[in-house]
Amino acid sequence: MSGVREQLPEGRYGHSADQRSDRRLKVLGGALGAVLIAVVGWFGYDYIAGQKISAEMIKFDVTSDSEVQVHLEIRKDADATGSCTVRSRSEDGAEVGRLDVRIDQRGESRIDQVYKIRTLSRGTTAELVRCDTA
To answer: How far is CA 131 from each of CA 5, 45, 71, 76, 108, rounded to the nearest angstrom?
Structure first.
C-alpha cells in the first residue's frame, strides 16, 4: 500500500496564496472595518447629541368628529425652547388636523401634557411628526 500524501504535489496546482498578500488584505479589511464602525458611531452620536428636544406620543383619543386628544411626553434640556408638530389623519389617510405645540417652559426638562388637535373631519389616528429647537 502506498502512503497518503498530506500535501498537494508541488507545481501541479500552482502556488498557494502568498502569505504576505493575505496578511495585507486582512490588515486592510480590519482597518476599513474599524473606520466604518467609527464613522457610523460618529454620525449616531452627532444625531443624538444634536437633539435638544425629543418627544414621545404616549396615547391618543378621538373625542369627537372635530377633536383628537394627544398625550405627549417631551424631554429637553432645561433651557431649550422650540416646538413639536403633531397631526391627525382620517381613515383614508388624509390629514384632517395639525397642531404645533410651543415648548417654552424654561427650567423644566420633562413635560407631560395632553394637547387637543382640532380636526376638519373625524380623525382616526394621531402621530408625532417632529420636534425642532427654536
So the answer is: 71, 18, 15, 10, 16
Helices (H), the chain: 19-49
With beta carbons less than 8 A apart as the criterion, state whether 71 and 39 touch: no
Distance between terminal CA atoms of the chain?
Answer: 87
> What are the pLDDT digits (tens) for 7-42?
766 666 655 556 667 788 889 999 999 999 999 999
The hierarchical CATH code for the domain 53-133 is 2.60.40
129, 87 in Cβ contact below 8 A? yes
Does pTM top 0.70 for this prediction? no
